């Protein structure tokens, strides 16, 4: 990309000036938006027109300096002046797939939080190597995969994404040198990954052998509860045990969630340390054929006993009651295979065979009842049974991590706020404080969001076009008009807290100590 | 970029030397003492030794290191390794403790010290060698640390100054339960000393959940200190090796040492790498996509399991595909045939999905696509048993790995019976091998049972020497040997002498 290089000095300047006062960020963007307002005045025009428009922009993308700060705001669509406006969101929502390039373009142009993403990866308002040497990998339409892309500033990233229109992009590590220059290095070993957030990936497909409601890529609110439990357990361990503070959970768009641990200490960990964290958190081991998947030492490690405390209530409601995991004889047989005593198993099997359709919760209760009644044989002591039952709880609730993602420094992971091409849902951060309320099926979709912008009516009552309200409307950015707003605000809060810690080590240390005292 | 001349003296040191004598400056001789049996190898040796000593000492140490590496490849437990190494160490690299009244104490320690530094020179040149060197040196260090007496170990640990904070009485009371849970079954942990360190210092203890963690600090019992010392050793060694590598060009002028060092590093080959794809293919066999089903009877159990899973589900997960693709590549299935094989096997997916999601990986394994180095190297080499046993244990729904290791006994027996092995004695033997973690032995036991007649015949007729029939440590070797034995009459074995 020769032009990006030739263009970068002025960008840097603008970037520095633009970002030097993050407090004024909003007004700044709006100021810059103004010159572009004309160029984008046709959000409600026909598709053909817009396509033409955009292509022209692309052709002159690097000549036209206005493009550096394209509007994230369309010309105001006053409901009175453009009566056909409401019809276009309908079109968008019903007719167009999320992977449609035009939809994606509008999303990247108007809704994607570029500035926050930049600050998040850059850890400072002015561009540094943390961002400039960071690898991005773009998946283009038609499954072309571009690795080792990098960008000096957020605007260049934005511009390149807008011109290439990838269906998604992923974030990799920060390298020793600019990834684009890696081939110019004399020896390749000098090109090494330096740092990356510690990442976790949990995917509901890994729960297929224990969830009964859905399988493969499908999810519902019942099996999402597995994700809720997983996030609780992992989050607690990362915060309490490892002392990490900046942890962001992101919905992956379809059937899983990612965690980004952004603390400086976590980012600079080498592969060995990542492996250590992964091993510490991994409990469910073994493939389809390895039988019992939970093999933990006794006494239980504090992390495991805490996890059991977190998981036990979920096991009762979300597994036993709503999943009913041992309804069929074949599945019940798996439960028996996890129990230690043959005589006990035989009596349980007899009991369950005589009453087909017995609920899993009752079957679970039967174990203790039958054992107590003495049908368990002499060799069975209560502790062995209790431990076996704990293992069952862990097998049916403990997080199943895709561990490879966490082990390697140079693993790539899909960026937050990217749109999942299949579902159209935006990969939004998950609020861990209100984890139970998160509904993956209600996460905003691109189509819906674009419709929300068009349907937006000045935030207030809607009808009244008072002077005051109009003035207010000018400062409102597109994302603020949509249901993406709380997510972007949460992301911004997260990024600001992270930057604060990076900027002022002294303050950070003090706070560390304070928090240390609390525990 | 300006490169600093290596002969230039560090600016900070320049003033120390008399400028008039600068050009004659040599590393000054320093009397070295060895107060402890163990050594962190912080200061390089400065005394003179003969060239013969230089070479002999290095070779002796190398022998030890190679043997240690072999132990790890054979998956020996620490105890087994220790007993295996004991006579060798006594012969080549003895190191007595302070309490022993050996008069050779100084000589032994000096040899240990010097040989370490000589090998450092020999193995600092490439990243790969450095990694292997620090791995085996760490193993040696750990071995010696473990056999040290407690008093000497403590004295040594004191001397290297690990900074760790003792856990106060208050904290110990506060976290009594947690600490007790990590201390294991021993009940007398009340008197145990605990240290608090950043968890990054003890990654292996963290990985195994053997320490209690709180807010980024690991609470380490004093008996686990060894692991900290070892971690510190590795860390310092790795850093030192980097520095050595940068200083190496200065050695180029020395025509006495360089050949010796080159020779040393070349002899340090991985036993693992002895498998060579050019010798693995079997001439005369019809290796094609449609013939894989027939050939699969010659596959080792891991690959048979993959094959059966593939036939059953019409699908394999990523690592399963990787392991199986590379194996097939190793037996001589070429890229086109391999693509045909995978395409027909994944009969539940559309052409489009196959091309999008699976084709690339197969091509990548063959070195048809990917980065320069991948293409030049012809893709990956087939996995050895070592790799299959130790890397990427299978997770839920995955079929790769080694059945002898990753299956539970019941499922393993079912699988073995499924492929026609129901002899009680063999199954019993497999069970014992599995219990003692000798997974190779189990696999070889099955091989010998299946090929009993042929092996007998081959030995009698002298077609294969016993060297050619030694323990199999590579799935592709299993296939090749199995195929040759089953086709004794048909294939001319003279042409295909095996390297073993």
UniProtKB/TrEMBL annotation, chain A:
Key word DNA-binding present: no
InterPro entries per record: DNA_primase_S (IPR002755), DNA_primase_ssu_euk/arc (IPR014052)
An annotated GO BP: DNA replication, synthesis of primer
Protein name: DNA primase
Compositionally biased region (Acidic residues): 59-69
Biased composition (Polar residues): 1-10, 21-32
Gene Ontology molecular function: any one: DNA-directed RNA polymerase activity
Listed Basic and acidic residues bias regions: 48-58
Regions of compositional bias (Low complexity) in chain numbering: 71-89
Region (Disordered): 1-93, 457-476
Enzyme Commission identifier(s): 2.7.7.-
Feature: compositional bias, Gly residues: 457-466
Keywords attached to this entry: DNA replication, DNA-directed RNA polymerase, Metal-binding, Nucleotidyltransferase, Primosome, Transcription, Transferase
Family per similarity comment: Belongs to the eukaryotic-type primase small subunit family.
One Gene Ontology cellular component annotation held by this UniProt entry: alpha DNA polymerase:primase complex
TrEMBL record, chain B:
Cofactor comment: Binds 1 [4Fe-4S] cluster.
Any one Gene Ontology cellular component term annotated for this protein: alpha DNA polymerase:primase complex
GO molecular function, one term: 4 iron, 4 sulfur cluster binding
Pfam families to which the protein is assigned, alphabetical: DNA_primase_lrg, DNA_primase_lrg_N
Annotated InterPro entries: DNA_primase_C, DNA_primase_lsu_euk, DNA_primase_lsu_euk/arc
Function: DNA primase is the polymerase that synthesizes small RNA primers for the Okazaki fragments made during discontinuous DNA replication.
Official protein name in the record: DNA primase large subunit
């Amino acid at each position: 990309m020769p032009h990006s290089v030739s263009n970068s000095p002025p960008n840097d300047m603008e970037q520095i000036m633009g970002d030097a006062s993050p407090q004024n960020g909003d007004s700044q963007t709006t100021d810059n938006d103004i010159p572009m307002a004309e160029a984008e005045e046709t959000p409600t025009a026909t598709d053909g027109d817009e396509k033409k428009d955009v292509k022209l922009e692309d052709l002159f993308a690097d000549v036209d300096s206005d493009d550096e700060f394209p509007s994230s705001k369309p010309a105001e669509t006053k409901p009175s002046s453009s009566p056909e406006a409401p019809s276009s969101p309908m079109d968008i929502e019903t007719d167009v797939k999320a992977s449609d390039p035009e939809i994606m373009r509008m999303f990247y142009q108007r809704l994607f939080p570029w500035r926050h993403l930049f600050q998040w990866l850059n850890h400072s308002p002015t561009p540094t190597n943390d961002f400039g040497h960071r690898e991005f990998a773009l998946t283009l339409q038609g499954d072309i995969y571009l690795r080792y892309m990098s960008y000096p500033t957020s605007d260049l990233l934005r511009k390149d994404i807008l011109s290439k229109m990838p269906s998604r992009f992923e974030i990799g590590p920060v390298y020793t040198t600019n990834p684009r220059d890696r081939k110019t290095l004399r020896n390749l070993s000098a090109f090494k990954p330096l740092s990356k957030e510690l990442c976790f990936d949990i995917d509901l497909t890994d729960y297929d052998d224990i969830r009964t409601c859905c399988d493969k890529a499908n999810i519902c609110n019942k099996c999402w509860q597995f994700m809720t439990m997983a996030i609780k357990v992992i989050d607690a361990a990362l915060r309490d045990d490892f002392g990490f503070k900046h942890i962001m959970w992101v919905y992956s768009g379809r059937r899983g969630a990612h965690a980004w641990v952004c603390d400086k200490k976590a980012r600079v960990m080498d592969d060995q340390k990542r492996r250590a964290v992964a091993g510490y958190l991994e409990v469910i081991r073994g493939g389809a054929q390895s039988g019992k998947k939970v093999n933990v030492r006794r006494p239980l490690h504090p992390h495991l006993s805490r996890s059991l405390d977190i998981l036990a209530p979920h096991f009762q409601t979300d597994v036993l009651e709503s999943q009913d995991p041992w309804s069929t004889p074949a599945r019940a047989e798996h439960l028996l295979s996890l129990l230690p005593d043959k005589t006990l198993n035989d009596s349980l099997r007899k009991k369950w065979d005589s009453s087909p359709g017995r609920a899993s919760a009752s079957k679970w209760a039967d174990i203790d009842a039958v054992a107590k009644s003495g049908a368990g044989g002499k060799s069975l002591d209560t502790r062995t049974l209790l431990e076996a039952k704990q293992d069952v709880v862990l097998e049916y609730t403990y997080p199943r991590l895709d561990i490879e993602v966490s082990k390697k420094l140079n693993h790539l992971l899909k960026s937050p706020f990217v749109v999942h091409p299949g579902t159209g849902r935006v990969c939004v951060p998950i609020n861990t404080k209100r984890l139970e309320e998160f509904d993956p099926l209600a996460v905003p979709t691109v189509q819906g969001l674009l419709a929300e912008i068009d349907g937006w009516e000045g935030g207030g009552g809607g009808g009244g076009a008072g002077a005051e309200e109009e003035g207010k409307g000018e400062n409102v950015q597109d994302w603020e008009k949509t249901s993406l707003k709380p997510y972007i605000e949460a992301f911004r809060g997260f990024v600001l807290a992270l930057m604060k810690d990076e900027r002022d080590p002294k303050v950070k240390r003090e706070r560390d100590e304070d928090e240390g005292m609390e525990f | 970029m300006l490169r600093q001349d290596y002969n230039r003296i560090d600016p900070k040191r320049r003033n120390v030397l008399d400028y008039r004598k600068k050009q004659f400056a040599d590393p000054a001789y320093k009397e070295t003492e060895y107060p402890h049996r163990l050594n962190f190898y912080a200061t390089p040796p400065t005394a003179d030794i003969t060239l013969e000593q230089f070479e002999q000492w290095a070779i002796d140490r190398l022998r030890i290191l190679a043997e240690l590496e072999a132990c790890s490849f054979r998956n020996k437990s620490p105890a087994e390794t220790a007993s295996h190494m004991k006579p060798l160490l006594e012969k080549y690299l003895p190191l007595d403790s302070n309490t022993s009244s050996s008069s050779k104490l100084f000589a032994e320690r000096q040899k240990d010290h010097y040989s370490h530094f000589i090998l450092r020179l020999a193995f600092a040149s490439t990243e790969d060698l450095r990694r292997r060197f620090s791995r085996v040196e760490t193993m040696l260090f750990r071995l010696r640390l473990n056999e040290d007496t407690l008093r000497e170990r403590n004295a040594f640990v004191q001397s290297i100054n690990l900074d760790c904070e003792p856990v106060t009485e208050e904290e110990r009371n506060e976290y009594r339960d947690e600490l007790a849970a990590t201390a294991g079954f021993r009940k007398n942990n009340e008197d145990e000393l605990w240290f608090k360190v950043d968890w990054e210092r003890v990654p292996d203890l963290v990985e195994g959940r053997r320490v209690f963690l709180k807010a980024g600090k690991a609470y380490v019992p004093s008996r686990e200190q060894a692991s900290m010392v070892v971690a510190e050793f590795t860390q310092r060694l790795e850093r030192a090796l980097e520095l050595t590598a940068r200083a190496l060009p200065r050695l180029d002028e020395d025509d006495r040492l360089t050949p010796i060092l080159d020779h040393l590093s070349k002899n340090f080959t991985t036993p693992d790498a002895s498998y060579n794809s050019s010798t693995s293919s079997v001439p005369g066999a019809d290796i094609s996509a449609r013939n894989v089903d027939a050939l699969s009877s010659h596959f080792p159990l891991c690959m048979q399991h993959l094959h059966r899973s593939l036939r059953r589900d019409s699908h394999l997960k990523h690592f399963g595909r990787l392991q199986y693709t590379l194996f097939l590549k190793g037996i001589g299935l070429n890229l086109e045939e391999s693509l045909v094989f995978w395409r027909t096997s994944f009969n539940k997916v559309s052409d489009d999905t196959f091309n999008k999601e699976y084709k690339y990986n197969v091509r990548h394994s063959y070195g048809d696509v990917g980065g320069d180095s991948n293409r030049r190297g012809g893709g990956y080499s087939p996995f050895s048993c070592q790799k299959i046993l130790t890397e990427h244990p299978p997770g839920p729904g995955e079929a790769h790995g080694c059945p002898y290791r990753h299956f539970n006994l019941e499922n393993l027996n079912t699988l073995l019976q499924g492929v026609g092995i129901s002899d009680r004695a063999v199954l019993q033997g497999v069970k014992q091998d599995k219990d003692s973690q000798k997974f190779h032995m189990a696999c070889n036991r099955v091989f010998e049972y299946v090929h009993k007649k042929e092996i007998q015949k081959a030995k009698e007729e002298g077609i294969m020497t016993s060297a050619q029939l030694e323990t199999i440590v590579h799935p592709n070797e299993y296939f090749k040997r199995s195929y040759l034995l089953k086709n004794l009459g048909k294939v001319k074995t003279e042409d295909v002498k095996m390297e073993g």
